[in-house]
Design goal:
alpha+beta, FAD/NAD(P)-binding domain, 10 helices, about 35% helix, about 35% strand
Length: about 375
């Protein structure tokens, strides 16, 4: 059976769901294809850092209150192990209620799925996409033995579907160890980004403790996940120090390989990539999801200016490329540069890093410039 739609979204995760919600009142028909079954419980308990800019997008979508509970980040402390220099960013200095918020990915995805259904947006669960192609000027998508055509296909799933151009990648030879940890002191809504020779170590306030995102070599990460809890906490304490207190527990340890993946051209005739399908970033500075959410919002705003019959035209693709180019490449370059600059113990670089962090802490205009880019993106 063949069907024709205005827009099909491949991927019903948070970015795909946000895009569908952003177009709800536009009069454009949107169908979301989600690979998991409707009643499947999400087991991905990764911590996710939302910037204040992402909160503003969710508020515009009318879903922010439904995402509770979230843990505000009111202060970010940046330092490096074995070197001088530190910097602090605070919500008070930036005139904001919080610099960001920490949520559980599974909780966020589940809440947005329920909102899609409650608002009457068409969602097909268990729809694992097998192929993406074109039928003349119209894109087509195949899943579960079905073929559907649409004026526009939005790929929001970072899986195996090829985009308008093939993916490029950089293997950092690193993995992130994530866990939920507690210390003997309250977190006071403070987050920490500590750069170590093996890679950045982030502590994000979450519930009554912290969400840990600890970057190291892939071999070390595998070994760390196998350590007894007491030994793991001892190694963590040595790497991080005692500025957050003594670590007393660690739960739900997991390990994820880290790569930079991106498609150079996110838009072609009738096919657009957003979120993880467009780019997957290193977790340093917590920019990946926020960039993907801006992709979804900006694409929806672009589509609102285009007649429905022109959705598959190259003019739409060109408009989106122009709208996203600066933010995408500046954010990818910034995170990639931080990984290369801080994942080593070369003394001249360590000294330069210390000077940079000292300037960041002492020069308010520089601090505000960096903070705004972290919160609102390269165009913020």
């Amino acid at each position: 059976m063949n069907s024709t739609d205005d827009i099909i979204v491949a991927g019903g995760g948070p970015v795909g769901a946000a895009f569908a919600l952003a177009l709800q009142a536009s009069g454009i028909g949107v169908t979301v294809l989600e690979s998991r079954e409707r009643d499947d419980a999400l087991s991905d308990a990764r911590p996710l850092a939302l910037s204040h800019g992402s909160r503003l997008i969710f508020e515009r979508l009318g879903v922010w209150d439904a995402l509770a509970p979230v843990t505000p980040i009111e202060r970010i402390h940046v330092s490096q192990r074995g070197g001088f220099g530190r910097a602090e960013l605070t919500a008070r200095d930036e005139g904001l209620p919080a610099l960001g918020y920490v949520v559980d990915y599974a909780r966020l995805a589940s809440a947005l799925s329920k909102i899609l259904i409650a608002r009457g947006i068409a969602v097909e669960f268990g729809a694992r996409v097998n192929a993406l192609g074109s039928d003349g000027a119209q894109p087509k998508i195949e899943y579960g033995g079905r073929t559907r055509k649409a004026r526009l296909v939005v790929v929001a799933d970072g899986g195996a579907i090829a985009g308008p151009t093939q993916q490029k990648s950089v293997d950092y030879q690193q993995s992130a160890v994530t866990a939920f940890v507690r210390t003997d002191q309250p977190h006071a809504h403070s987050a920490y980004e500590r750069f170590t020779p093996g890679g950045p170590l982030a502590l994000l306030p979450f519930d009554e403790g912290y969400a840990l995102v600890w970057t190291m070599s892939s071999e070390q990460a595998q070994q760390s996940c196998k350590l007894e809890a007491r030994e793991f906490l001892s190694v963590l304490q040595c790497e991080f120090g005692r500025r957050a207190g003594a670590f007393v527990s660690a739960e739900q340890r997991a390990c994820y390989p880290l790569m930079l993946r991106f498609v150079p051209d996110i838009a072609g005739a009738g096919i657009v990539c957003i979120g993880n399908a467009a780019q997957t970033l290193h977790p340093v500075a917590g920019q990946g999801f926020n960039l993907g959410l801006r992709d979804a919002w900006e694409l929806a705003q672009t589509i609102r200016t285009v007649p429905v019959h022109e959705l598959s035209a190259m003019v739409t693709a060109n408009a989106l490329r122009a709208r996203r180019r600066i933010d995408r490449y500046a954010t990818m370059a910034a995170t990639h540069g931080l990984v290369r600059l801080f994942s080593n113990d070369f003394f001249p670089l360590r000294a330069a890093r210390g000077m940079g962090m000292t300037l960041l802490g002492c020069v308010p205009p520089l601090r505000d410039f960096v903070a705004r880019r972290m919160i609102f993106g390269a165009r913020g």
